[in-house]
Specification:
single chain; 331 residues; mainly alpha; Leucine-rich Repeat Variant; 3 domains; 19 helices; 71% helix; elongated
């Protein structure tokens, strides 16, 4: 009997712990975050700021706004992060103030990222991001973040500054960020600048790869003739030649580059191999189909196998296997 008695007690204890309504649990967590936000320990206040972001409750906005003025930079950073997650448009001016006046680099970087989450592309938001790009003394980390946010906002106001910086900067990572951003904004002036920058970067395979992928992504058929000329240039590297072949396959379905694409399927560079698989589904022949099927058997990467599967199915639709004819019986 005692055994069953203890079982009943345990049941009611567990029931009391887990039978609290979800709304009540949520409210308790929210109240706990409010209490923590006033704790003298900055580590606890930072936890509170992070918890407000996790809970996604707009009632947290006034508390997070207060924490933007916290003496500890980690608390301020967590606060601006959470305001970004909450898409808190009503505090856009406060976040801009953090961006312009906070003395901590990481807090300012988080403010830029938060502006991207909130998604307002007004000039008052874009203008300080442009100023960061134009200011030579600003950190490259802030410039990378500004490019990313401008790409999210699709800000055409920033195109001229981005184009100018693409020409002037020697920082490879910043150049790559600008290329990506111009592709996302997809303004004619930006696309034209990417075309013009190809010849100036022929010795840098990574930059050429990024430019080509962006121009392919925006379906820039106006660059096809340039790619044909560059593909035939004997002085460029094999990898750069491949990127032009990839573009010609995708944009023009140019079968003259099939040999280069097939050879690139053997590349030890995973990125090149995957681009080759993607390209060959547009210009592949029956032999290409056989090569892809053999590759599929040996491939271990899940992502690459997915690409192979797509390419194989597309080529199978193009080259359906013909069944042997049934011999007719002699009469």
């Amino acid at each position: 009997m005692k055994f069953f008695y203890y079982i009943i007690i345990i049941f009611f204890v567990v029931y009391s712990l887990y039978s609290q309504p979800p709304e009540s649990n949520f409210q308790n967590q929210f109240n706990e975050a409010i209490e923590k936000s006033h704790n003298p320990d900055p580590y606890i206040r930072r936890q509170a700021a992070e918890q407000f972001g996790i809970l996604r409750d707009v009632r947290a906005i006034p508390h997070l706004k207060r924490l933007l003025k916290d003496e500890n930079p980690f608390v301020r950073q967590a606060s601006v992060d959470s305001l970004g997650l909450l898409r808190a448009k009503e505090v856009i001016d406060d976040i801009l103030d953090v961006l312009k006046n906070d003395n901590d680099l990481q807090v300012r970087q988080s403010a830029i990222i938060a502006l991207g989450y909130i998604g307002i592309s007004d000039f008052k938001v874009v203008s300080p991001l442009i100023d960061i790009l134009k200011n030579e003394k600003e950190s490259y980390a802030l410039k990378y973040a500004a490019c990313n946010t401008l790409s999210i906002l699709r800000s055409t106001q920033a195109v001229s500054v981005l184009v100018e910086l693409l020409e002037s900067t020697e920082d490879i990572n910043l150049k790559k960020s600008i290329i990506y951003t111009l592709g996302k904004i997809s303004h004619p002036d930006g696309i034209s600048a990417l075309r013009d920058s190809i010849e100036k970067n022929l010795q840098n395979e990574a930059i050429i790869a990024d430019i080509v992928k962006v121009l392919v992504e925006v379906s820039d058929v106006g660059v096809i003739n340039k790619f044909k000329v560059l593909y035939s240039t004997p002085t460029i590297s094999l990898k750069t030649k491949f990127y032009f072949a990839y573009a010609l396959a995708k944009l023009a379905k140019d079968t003259s580059v099939l040999g280069t694409i097939k050879n690139s399927l053997k590349s030890p560079d995973e990125g090149v191999k995957n681009l080759a698989i993607d390209a060959i589904r547009f210009i592949g022949d029956k032999e290409s189909l056989s090569i892809l099927k053999e590759m599929y058997k040996k491939e271990t990467s899940v992502y690459t196998k997915q690409l192979l599967d797509i390419a194989i199915k597309q080529l199978e639709a193009k080259y359906p296997s013909s069944l042997p004819e049934t011999p007719q019986k002699k009469r």
